[in-house]
Amino acid sequence: MAKELLKATDVSEVFGGLKAVSDFNFHINKGELVGLIGPNGAGKTTAFNLITGVYQPTTGEIHFDGKSIVGLKPYQITQRGIARTFQNIRLFSELTVLENVKIAFHFHVKYGLLESVFRMGRYFSEEEKIEEEALKLLKIFHLEDKADELAKNLPYGAQRRLEIARALAAKPKLLLLDEPAAGMNPQETKELMEMISWIRKEFGLTILLIEHDMSLVMGICERIYVLEYGMIIAQGTPDVIKNDPEVIRAYLGGEA
Q1: Domain range holding 31?
Q2: I need a surface site. Which of 81, 99, 128, 196 has the fewest CB within 10 A?
Q3: What is the pLDDT of residue 252?
Q4: 103 and 133 part of one domain
């Protein structure tokens, strides 16, 4: 039986009387690759923000790996094993590509504050290990030759790859990807699909993604949830979803 990794139960989020998410119920099993789709304003990013602690639910519960994460700060949720990317890329633009990845590894450093301040004890061996692991990640994402460049100087597609690499540096169990193909051309999107499938297998990840590119969603997701006006209107396999009359009406603009 598949192990349930993330579960949201009756989650709602109200902003000034407006329900951005309403009675949101969903789950992801360990190892799954699940999509969350819906029209603009459907509440997809709000759902991500609830899972990662940016927002606290007005009502409902969210459990990760069997424990409630409601009330935790975003950094505490990252430490528990959830990492994310953003619809609008949020890199440290004035830091180098390598430094962007190294920062995320510091969630797991084994030296203390005094060792860091006075650069003693385990500090140098840990920093050497972090740099080695960061460079390995950059190689996976074909960014090793850009290690010393400022993140802001990378082409758009490379910035997207760097953001995913930085998320993986936090060593997550669950990776949330918020529109990873946004702004990419068809060839870049195809390469991204292959990369997502590969990192899922290579790193033993569970992945939840928001995406408008239906070819990407249908091509790699095992299950899909569809949101409209903050409520889930359908869920199932790609074949079920693309033939669901409510989805066709709400998301694809057809008739129910």
Answers
A1: 4-81+172-250
A2: 128
A3: 58
A4: yes
* pLDDT value at 250 more than 70: yes
Q: What is the SS3 string spanning the chain?
A: CCCEEEEEEEEEEEECCEEEEEEEEEEEECCCEEEEECCCCCCHHHHHHHHCCCCCCCEEEEEECCEECCCCCHHHHHHHCEEECCCCCCCCCCCEHHHHHHHHHHHHCCCCHHHHHHCCCCHHHHHHHHHHHHHHHHHHCCCHHHCCCEHHHCCHHHHHHHHHHHHHHCCCCEEEEECCCCCCCHHHHHHHHHHHHHHHHHHCCEEEEECCCHHHHHHHCCEEEEEECCEEEEEECHHHHHCCHHHHHHCCCCCC
pTM of the model: 0.86
Single residue among 129, 155, 181 that ends a domain in this structure: 155
* Dihedral pair phi/psi, residue 235, rounded to 5°: -155, 150
Domain count, the chain: 2
Q: For residue 108, name the pLDDT band (cuts at 50, 70, 90).
A: low
Q: What are phi and psi of 142, to 5 degrees?
A: 55, 45
- Residues 58-89 have pLDDT tens digits of 999 999 999 999 999 999 999 999 999 987 88
Whole-number pLDDT of residue 106:
64
